[in-house]
Description:
Chain A is mostly helical and 253 residues long.
Amino acid sequence: MNWTAIRSIFVFEMFRFFRTIAQSFLAPVISTSLYFVVFGAAIGSRIEEVEGVSYGAFIVPGLIMLTVITQSISNASFGIYFPKFIGTFFELLAAPISFLEIVIGYVGAAATKALIIGIIILITAFFFVDFTIAHPLAMVAFLILTAISFALFGFILGIWAGNFEQLQIVPLLIVTPLVFLGGSFYSISMLPPIWQTISMFNPVVYLISGFRWAFFDTADVPILTSLLAIGLFTGICLAVIWWIFRTGWRIRE
Amino acid sequence: MQNIVEIRDLKKSYKGGFEALKGVDLDIREGEILALLGPNGAGKTTLISTICGITTSTSGSVTVGGHDIVNDYRAARSMIGLVPQEINLEPFERVINTVRFSRGLFGKRGDDAAIEKVLKQLSLWDKKDSQIRELSGGMKRRVLIAKALSHDPRVLFLDEPTAGVDVELRKDMWDVVAGLKADGVTIILTTHYIEEAEAIADRVGVIAKGELMLVEEKNTLMARMGQKELEVQLTEPISEVPMLLQSDALRLSDDGSALIYTYDTRAERTGITKLLSDVAKEGLVLRDVVTRQSSLEEIFVNLVNNGDNAEDAA
Ligand SMILES: Nc1ncnc2c1ncn2[C@@H]1O[C@H](COP(=O)(O)OP(=O)(O)O)[C@@H](O)[C@H]1O
Ligand SMILES: [Mg+2]
């Protein structure tokens, strides 16, 4: 394993992140604050409590998930697509490194950035609402697992994409709806039965439910089911990446 | 001299079936400068890309320093530096960071002294904190070279380092290459300028339509470059060259109907006048006289023409 190379990729990617630090941090902090104002204060004042938690606090895990998922995907997909776009990708191919090392470098950096932003949002949330975290370790573990698995997904997306439009279309048309409909802002149990059933096909439901369990010890689905779901998703992404590695799909001609 | 790169029957077909390399055999000697000369589309970039691991070959093998580029790719690639044809750099990155990144990719620890050395070698030291986008085209190419040299490669591939570069920068680049050779780096560069190969190469390989037509010492090649053939066609075939005409430069065609004389167009005396008067003295009757360039010269002329056509089309 060429750890020096992995570290180089990681550091280089993190530098890119810090170069645009204002954008990287400010945008999610502002949008999250807006969510708290609109949903927490304006609407939340009429909803009172969901599953024994104040509405303002209830949406915190969902908001963090929303941001970590979208950030992981966009960081990783952009991170690997950009070198392809400007033509510096050849450097990775000509270096004495394996595809696995490339994946660890880029996915690691993308997941780290998403985690940093997730934590910033968590801190921001403390300014708006009062809450305690029931299972802090599980919360952190969940966050890391989510960041990594969606960064893997983003990596695949970035390898697949042939232009910027394709890079954005999947998050826009598939991921964002799934995340919004995944119970970020409501409990699945609040829905009519038919929608509850449909929601069970949305993988993000399991993530948000599990993450909310780590916060408040209540969940829409059993925590084991949540773990299974994210494990499955990670497994699928890893399998696809392994296949790309074997075939050189969209990498080496 | 020892071979540092050995290429055996290397073939490459792109998706869609286009055969860009049709079985290339080539040995590159340690410490030499080898120029690969060929028109656009000849397969120069494909050959380099395959050796460096950017594309995969269809069949054949390549070893670098004895290491197979597929089975032992880490060892093989560690020895190689690549300067691509296109200037591909991140515009907002700083010079020193992108060079550090390249070194790291090759598994070498950050070493400020090594980075400083390579940046100074390419006269980039005072530009080390500049963003790439602030640099001129010539400087950008130097950054590419600095990146390729950042991990101290033994073999450096330069893909058309002077294409589209003005005369002054071209000379500049030649100096850089000469300096690298003095440091013991083996250099393979591609070009479609004959003068460039003539100026800096030790050996020259000519590549066209995916085939390596020849590889030769530059000096031998240049000596043969100016050669021309004069064919004296006779009315009556003869069985052997008459006494008076016998020389190394003259031979009889297979059917005995023509004398073929090889001469150097650049020589002070070509010997044609003497030849023709000797032919007359021997009582031979001429049917016709034809001159043609040696096969090598023909290759070059075609080469340049094709290259020009390709450029016109582009
Ligand atoms: N990715 C590719 N897919 C299909 N054909 C290609 C590709 N890259 C190069 N070729 C073809 O292979 C031939 C050799 O190209 P190249 O190696 O770039 O030539 P050179 O570097 O000598 O100009 C050209 O005819 C070119 O069109
Ligand atoms: Mg080329």
